[in-house]
Amino acid sequence: MNGTKNEIKMGREAILQSIKENKPDLLPMPTVNVEAFAEDLNILEVFKNNIALVGGNIKQIEKKAIDTEVKTIYSKAKRIVSTSSKTALGTVKISIDTDPHELEDIDLAIVEGEFGVSENGAIWVTAENSIVRALPFITNDLVIILEKDKLYLHMHQAYDIISQRNRSFGVFISGPSKTADIEQCLVVGAHGAMSLTVLLV
Amino acid sequence: MNHATKAKEFNKDESKVNWHDKALWYVREKRDKSAHSIQGWEYLRELGSAIKANVLSNLDEYLVEFESNAQKNGIHVHWASNAEEHNNIVNSILEKHNAKRVVKSKSMLTEECHLNPFLEKKGIEVIDTDLGERIVQLAEEPPSHIVLPAIHKTKEQVDELFQEHLGTKPSQGNPEYLVSEARKHLRDKFLKADVAITGVNFAVADTGGFVVCTNEGNADMGVHLSKVHIACMGIEKIIPKEKHLGVFLRLLARSATGQPITTYSSHFNKPEEGKEMHIVIVDNGRTEQLSREDFRASLHCIRCGACMNTCPIYRRSGGHSYDYTIPGPIGSILSPGKDLKKHSSLPFASTLCGSCSNVCPVKINIHEQLYKWRQVIVKEEKQPVVKKSILKVAGIILAKPSLYGFAGKSARFALKHLPKFMIYNKLNAWGKARDLPEIKNENFDEWYKKRNKNG
Question: What is the ipTM for the molecules in this complex?
């Protein structure tokens, strides 16, 4: 094992040395002028359009209508995990100690998103939102609840918002999982969620 | 076998080539639409290029910064000078956990290092979980495109492969059915996997975190269900600051498939409680490429595949004709640096039209580098006798106007009066599938003088 460790150490030093010898003179790091990306548009409407473009459903509803809406769309869902306090539909309780393998046959997961990005329909979902990281991926269908005033124009603003977060795991989710690997035919529902419904409240 | 010979193979099935050509051009068109729907696209490309240039000029510092930040978050960092070291490191992690079942999401680096056969020889099951990669894995072929690995396969071929390996019913290539069967098959693999291996799209120096992008969710399914995550990255995947992800994530998917962003852009900073996260940082020829002033910008590449989709040669010759892990224009400027002799035909697999450079999200001057590699290659590699002698003769003729005029006259006379078999033969590669244009009696110079005289 010592031998392996030495080799690995050698790899590191050799690589760094080789870079030092071969790299060009220092070039400046550009500053990103975010104003160049400003657009005067209705970010709510663009966000809605982009959710549809990436294969998701989006509904703008009252907070109190969440349960009724979810029951209507996913009437057959029995095993439901909710990590949101905004709904009482959860039937399976999870904690950070839950083995993700137990979530294999979850019909529906309901999580809250932190904010949405108008330009691409992406929603930031953190490990804290999901409790178990696998949840939004392994579930058959996914509902993300998002507050309608938490929408931003583009990714530059998004990274500003999350710059002070506690960094563990987080994911931008844009639509349901999909693939076009068979003759470029778009099929929704690859390995992750088969459908995504975004509830703007 | 050189590119042209392999391309000939691919061109045997004309309808398939036509489909391949059109399918990729369609992706290119989607890229255009998507790129131009946002404000400041060209500025984004400039930023992407300038950030990557800064990265290369300060790469050692950024890597050390990345390592130290990653370690602070409990991530194990390994360094590998070459493919062999990389494979040994991965294997030693698997051994430590007594892992027998590995699920892998897309990583061109592990393809480059031939990790799968290495691990399989040691009795480890390695399953590629991206659908396109799973298809080519079952077919025992390499990917033919870095974003669309099975673009060379018809749905009927996938149907047959699945019948043989997954026991599916014949479906005449029904994509919905085939995807749903693949989902079941791979879900079982995810649930049973000991270790997940992923690539890295971007590694962030100032946070020690990294981002993996997929549409299928296969990287996340693997990582979050396994107890160990190994992420493998080339040294050039580093970006200085997390906020630069704003630039690169806006560029990547739009350039690749025309989507505004991939379905999942997963940000890994810390392992989940009770789990392990490893990063293997790999050189494997990259620092050598860094030393070549004319070619170092090839290391800007973010692996979007836009240069392939737009390339008239790639679209009509298929990814396998390049016989290199990364095909297409970008592969043709990366590969000669790895093995000049083996890949010496690739820089010639281009019309130098420049379309690749025009779509590259990080503004690599691909077509100029292709031209520069040609100059290196003709100096260092033996050229075919025919090409060499023709160019020599052309050099003499073009240097003397009187000789040029005479040669032109003779050629026009010959082309008009010689029998067909003497014109369309091995020396005339252009005329293989085409007729020469109608031969006029005069050259441009004569025509121009006459035109001036007639006023």
Answer: 0.96
